[in-house]
Amino acid sequence: MQILEIIESHTGGEPTRVVIAGGPDLSAGSMEEKFAYFKKHHDWLRRTVCNEPRGHDAMVGALITPTTNEDCVCGVIFFNNVGTLHMCIHGTIGLVMTLKFMDLIDVGVHKIDTAVGVITATLREDGLVEVVNVPSYRLAKNVPIHVAGYGEIFGDVAWGGNWFFLINGQGPEVAYANRDALAEFSKNVRAALTEQKITAPDGHEIDHVEIFAPAADPALADSRNFVFCPGHAYDRSPCGTGTSAKLACLYADGKIQPGEVWRQAGILDSVFTGSIEVLGEGKIVPRISGRAWVNGKSTYYFDPTDPFRFGIEESIH
Ligand code: PYC
């Protein structure tokens, strides 16, 4: 009988489901090839883990894969309710705590292979996980877009492992009570980006929108954000790739230097801390720290008479 084994965690409120058994055999090829193969042939797994009736819009999944990179403890492919994610830092922090929970790793430094490169995660004795992300940079500053119902909005386009449009101080107030208005605004921003053909250099959609405001408590954080993910869900955590994109923008504006720490609060006021290493040519390597907690373990069954055993396809709704 087909089954899937899952370990659940959350990182600053944002959930991750790590598939630890029952997933497809992805032993062949580089991580980039595994990622493309997974996307083409195993969307059933993404839907099963992230979509209703088992999942929900905010769910992020992670499939542990073998890797040919001998330095790495494993490879990983991240995905959510609408597709694959190049990279996911809250998910990496959840993965590290999952590997620790399974006694596969201990406190220390661990390399993990992803579709966009090898990342390094350090699990500290106190449970904090620090992720050294892929090189990040700002592509464009102060890009004007026309957003339905809001007029002219300005934002930076930056890469932090995913593509982000970063808006400062425009749109609805960044507060949890405003999450529906923030999501609606972000949806319109993403539509404007598509309409105005503002894309990554390879034509990839700028599919994450990030809105910044001052922190609720400046003693705890330097800024608070709202991050709208591909699909219609917002990140409950401060979003590690989004914080990386923010660090790239701060560096490009001369507002952060190596050795300084940026404390990014998310919409639930959970905090990631970030610092940078400078690579040259405007690129930085971000280091993002946060905490995750393992909070469940599931076994999924696939009754052949259940029409939704592989999740509800969003395309039919
Ligand atoms: O933490 O990088 C992140 C992330 C991406 C999408 C959701 N969380």
Describe what you observe in this structure.
The chain has helices at residues 31-41, 43-50, 89-101, 179-195, 240-252; strands at 3-11, 14-21, 60-65, 72-80, 84-85, 108-114, 117-123, 129-132, 137-147, 151-159, 163-168, 208-213, 223-228, 262-265, 271-280, 283-290, 292-301. With 317 residues, the chain is of the alpha+beta class. A hairpin with a 3-residue loop joins strand 9 (137-147) and strand 10 (151-159). The longest helix has 17 residues, at 179-195. The radius of gyration is 19 Å and the shape is globular. The model has no long low-confidence stretch (mean pLDDT 96).
Could you write a compact summary of the structure shown?
It contains five helices and 17 strands. The protein has helices at 31-41, 43-50, 89-101, 179-195, 240-252; strands spanning 3-11, 14-21, 60-65, 72-80, 84-85, 108-114, 117-123, 129-132, 137-147, 151-159, 163-168, 208-213, 223-228, 262-265, 271-280, 283-290, 292-301.
